[in-house]
Each structure stands twice: as C-alpha cells, then as structure tokens.
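Morning F.,

Quick status update on the modeling queue. The single chain you submitted on Monday has been processed. Sequence for confirmation:
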Amino acid sequence: MHETTPPSLTLTILTGLSGAGKSTALNVFEDAGFLCIDNLPVFLLLPLLDGMARRADGPHRLALVMDARDAELAPALAGVLKEVKTRTTLVQIIFLEANDTILLRRYSQLRRAHPLAQVGLVQDGIASEKIRLAGLRRLADRVIDTSSLTPTELRHKLLQHEASPIADMRVNILSFGHKHGLPSEADLLFDVRFLPNPYYVVELKEKTGLDAAVAAHALENETGRRFLDHLFALLDFLLPEFEQAGKAYLTIAVGCTGGKHRSVAVAEEIHRHLAGQKWVEKIFHRDLDK
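Structure tokens below.
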C-alpha cells in the first residue's frame, strides 16, 4: 500500500534535449531551496515519494532531472504521473530545448559526445533525441527554449510560476588578514587597513575585534563612522541587486593586516546591520586564532 504524499509537496520534473541546460536548471532549483536529484530513473520516483511522505519535517519541494538516456521515459512517466497526481501532489514537467545550431555549438565547446549519437555525429544524436522525446514534450506543462537565454533569464523563467516561497539569497560575512592571503570565495572585498589600528595600543594588542574597546578604537572616530555609513548604504543598494540578478550566495569579505582587530570589528558591524533583514547571514572570522 502506497503512502499518501503530503499535499504540500511540490514536484518539478526537468527534462528535455541534451545540452539544453537541464543541469543549470537543476542548480537554480537547488539554490532556491529544493531537494534536487539528477538522472532519477522513472521506476524510483514513486518509492522516493513514499519515503518523503513518511518525513513530516520535509523537505517538501523536490526537483528531478529525467533525461533521454532512459529509453522508455515518456510512456513510463505518463503512467507514473497519473499515480502521482492521485496523491494530491503539485507536479509540473518543464521541458528544455534549444535550436540545433546552439546545441551543436554547446557540444563543440564541451568536447563531449551526444548520449544518443551512434557513430559520434552530434547532429544524428540530436535528431534521434527529438523523436524519442516528442511524446514527453507534449506531456510538458511548460516548454522553455534556452537558445538565447542567459543564466539569469533562465532562472527567472524557471521560478516565475513557483508558488512556494523561494529561499532568499544567503550572505556570508568573512573577516581575514591580508598577510594570510586573500579569500578566494569573496564576492565583495573591503580593505579596512586605513582605520586606526588597535594593534599599536598596548592594552588592546592582545585583544580582538570582538572586544568593545577594540571596536571603539577602530570605529568610534570620524573616519570610522563615515566609513560605516557609506558601507551600509552601499550594501543596502547592492544586496537586492545581486539577488535580482539571480545570485543565491554572496560572500562579503573584510580584511585588515592580521585579521584580528579592525576586520573583525567591521565584520561584526555588518552582521549587526543585516540582522533583522531578510538575508540569511552567517559570520566567520578566518584568522582570529592565527
């Protein structure tokens, strides 16, 4: 006896032509907070839903890629979907395609063989795949041509009909010391070595930017106050713009000489400024103990 799938579960099935952007699309849903599985065989779909039905705590948003390497995909999936819909699951099939010229160009750039090419001819593989997936294309709730879409445009098309709340952009705040190297993950980097340095104050040298007296020495002055005002205004402008552009993660890095005093104090101020806003933020002090 099958479990009853939670009514709140939404299922998105991504399929379509090889090279049309299914992996990119799956990444979009992953960044939006979906549980994502690539190349799930059709016969595993119902057992997967049964397993999720037993988890009252979620996740309740699922995105799957099913592609042409499963030769019986279209007819088998049609039957499975009838069963899925009897479980009151919200389900949509998104079919991704692109014109032959674009697909050939993408395969040329990737230097990969088409999964259905019999003797290595990509054009033959594309033609065979179109025939194989014609029935599934007719089953699709939405068909998206990715030929001229940028990744940001594709993201907007994929999520524009998504009724569930999409996860907000996640913001990481990172303090570091320049003498220990720049953080490769930084999207925005602020050098705060122009601020007064507590390192040269005897009673502050062994403390860190987490100490109120250290933070006050670095920031409770005209330069420090003006800097924070400008910094907060810049972040208030930039963060919504980055999210609108489709960025799911953003790392703000703040660096001073050693990564113990000024950068830590400024990173903490950024964290306080963002607290209570919609961003999901975490703070890391990379070089605090070095």
